[in-house]
Amino acid sequence: MLVLKLGGSVITDKRVRCRARPGVIGRLARELKPFCSETIIVHGAGSFGHIKASKHGLKDGISSDEALLGAAEVQREVRELDAIVCRALQKAGIPAISIPPSVFLQFSCGSLSEYDVGPFREAMARGFVPVTFGDVVMDDLQGVAICSGDDLVKLLACEFKAERAVFVSDVDGIFDSDPKANKRAKLIREIDPLKPLKAVM
C-alpha cells in the first residue's frame, strides 16, 4: 500500500494564481502508471488554493462575508486543479476518481475531529485509484478550516497502514531548513521516528 503526495509546488506555479503545470502533471501521471496498484494519491492546492486562502485568513475560519465568498472560491479553484490532475492520470491509463476531503472528514476549531475512510476502501475494492487534495473543509466551530495535503497523507497512511508514503516535491530531499532560502541548509539522510523533527521538504 502506497500513499503518494504530489506537492502543490510541483504541479502548479505558486507565484501565479491558478496556474497549473500540465506538462509536469502529464509526465508524473505517465511515470506513476506502473506503480498505481494499491495506491492513494494526494495532491496539494498550490496556487489554486494558497493565495486566496491566505488573503482571507481561512485557516482561522470565516470572519466576514468576503471571507465566506473567498472560501467558496477556493473550494471551486482547488476542484479545478483536481480535475486537471485526474484528467492527466486517466489519460495515462490510471482509473483515478476524486474524493474531496469534505466528503469524508470534519474539523473542529481548526483540527481534524471526525473522518470516515469508507469511500477510499470502496473505491479501491472496485479497482479505482482514489485522489484527494488539500482543501477548505467544514469546521463546526469556526465555519471552515484548511485541510492540507500533508494532513491527508498522515491520516491515510496511518489508517491504511501504508508501507510507504512518498512525497513528490520541488526540493531534492528533506532538509533542516528551507534550502531555497538558506544555502547552508543540510540534507537529512536518516530520520529517527522516535525523535521529534523540524524539517523542510
A few lines on this structure:
By secondary structure, the protein is an alpha/beta fold.
- Please, what is the average pLDDT? 92
Number of strands: 9
Strand order of the largest sheet: 3-6-2-1-9
Second-tier CATH architecture of the largest domain: 3-Layer(aba) Sandwich
Ends apart, CA distance between termini = 22 Å
Task: Kindly describe this structure.
With 201 residues, the chain is of the alpha/beta class. It has 2 domains: 2-168, 3-Layer(aba) Sandwich (Carbamate kinase), CATH 3.40.1160.10; 172-201, no CATH class. Helices cover 35% and strands 21% of the residues. It is built from 7 helices and 9 strands; from the N terminus they run E-H-H-E-H-H-E-H-E-E-H-E-E-E-H-E. It has helices at residues 8-11, 22-32, 50-55, 65-91, 101-104, 118-125, 149-159; strands at 2-6, 39-43, 96-98, 105-108, 111-115, 129-133, 135-139, 143-147, 164-168. The protein has a 5-stranded parallel sheet with strand order 3-6-2-1-9, sandwiched between helices.
List its traits.
201 residues; alpha/beta; Carbamate kinase; 2 domains; five-stranded parallel sheet; two-stranded antiparallel ribbon; 9 strands; 35% helix; globular
What's the helix and strand layout?
Blueprint: E1 2-6, H1 8-11, H2 22-32, E2 39-43, H3 50-55, H4 65-91, E3 96-98, H5 101-104, E4 105-108, E5 111-115, H6 118-125, E6 129-133, E7 135-139, E8 143-147, H7 149-159, E9 164-168
Parallel strand pairs: 1-2, 1-9, 2-6, 3-6
Antiparallel strand pairs: 4-5, 7-8
Helix pairs in contact: 2-4
